[in-house]
Design a protein that fits this description.
This protein is mainly alpha-helical. The chain is built from three helices and no strands.
Length: 74
């Protein structure tokens, strides 16, 4: 059984919202969803920013790895 801390779960959900495959969500819709998550999780704005940055850095790292190993093209 996998157990997530609330912060780890929050980062995973934010990452998923930012990368909804097959969904043509506009940036504004993504922002609305992320803000809704912040409210639903009762996340402090500073903590939200910190965790959002982690989710975004995860995106950069994933794209870099995919580019280096040939699964991603510019």
């Amino acid at each position: 059984m996998v157990v997530f801390k609330v912060e780890e779960l929050y980062v995973e959900i934010v990452y998923t919202v930012l990368h909804m495959i097959g969904c043509d969500a506009e940036r504004e819709e993504q922002t609305d969803l992320v803000n809704h998550l912040r409210e639903a999780f009762h996340m402090d704005p500073d903590k939200h920013k910190q965790l959002l940055d982690i989710a975004i850095m995860r995106e950069v790292k994933t794209n870099l790895i995919m580019f280096l190993f040939g699964s991603y093209s510019l």
